[in-house]
Amino acid sequence: MDNRNNSGNKNSGNCNSGDYNSGSCNSGSHNSGHHNSCNCNSGNYNSGYCNSGDYNSGSCNSGSHNSGYYNSGHWNSGLFNRNSSKLRIFEKETDLTMTEFRDKYGYPRIYPILAEYKDDKLVTYEYKAAWQIIWNKATDKQKQWYLDLPNFDPQIFFDITGIDVREPKEKFVVSSLVGKVATVTIDDKTYRTIIIKQTN
């Protein structure tokens, strides 16, 4: 095997900066998987330790996509789970696991891009600003994916992304009364005067 670009020791893979890796692109040590940033993983793309699954940010998981510990199930953020938990979406529990959600809804239609190159310069964006940029470019179908999510809550969506999809509320303000005549202001614009009927 051609072992190249290793900065660590006793690696049989490529592009490793740790030691004793048989996989590639590891910055940790004792990994037999690939693209791990921590140690002792036999899976791939783990930032935790001692995982035999893939894409874990927690440790000692034999399942995949876990941010918790000691899970043999998938998509868990807790400890010692053998199955997949139900998803909380918009702060309410659903009856869907992540796998069931992906089967039904697919993957997100758009992602906020926090950094990009423009004119050979790296430009970074704040999270909500990035959401606004990508939302302005999105198609109606892409936007609808988010609006159709279980438990969709426009206020929560606004608080997290800065995107306001709430129905506009008319502000009906009577700014002055002269006898039985009033000036009516709707959404900060004065439109007309009306007669106010006196009630008993």
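Next protein, fold it too.
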Amino acid sequence: MRKLLNHELNRLDQTGFKSSDKIAVTVVLDNVRSQHNIGSVFRTADAFRIENILLCGITATPPNREMQKTALGATETVSWQYYTETLTAIEDLHKKGYTILVIEQTDNSIALEDFDPLPNSKIALVFGNEIQGVDEIIVDLADSCIEIPQFGTKHSLNISVTAGIVLWHVFQHFKIHIEKQNT
């Protein structure tokens, strides 16, 4: 067994990525403080061909040296927009027909393993601040909340880890529906 070299991975270049089909998922970062977390979300969004990232409030925007350490160029491939208020971003997404899904622990949240996005749906996944989570106003506007069940002593995961887990789960469901359509 040997590790594959980068050129053997058959990855898209920037031009190919920008023109490729994306899954109908927008990531919303609600006042995320850490530029390393933001960069990690960009890199994960690139890996799973997420269509867009909305950076809201205090969330830093590219170009940013600290963000680049974890994004490794994904800020150049993944489409993004900045909103001063997360509320405005959510209102715009609702107008465009997106289902708003907040990743948060609530009294009515759905366990991630029980969440199966509908084929051909447009969803927005909202991830919150590292300390306070998603703002309560945004939680109230959500169509639903999703949580990752946890069994240790800590009450939450790092946002970059959470985004990786949730985006992988969503990507798998979209990929399965795409593969069924192609057979």
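About the second fold: Residues 24-181 form a domain with the Alpha/beta knot fold (CATH 3.40.1280.10).
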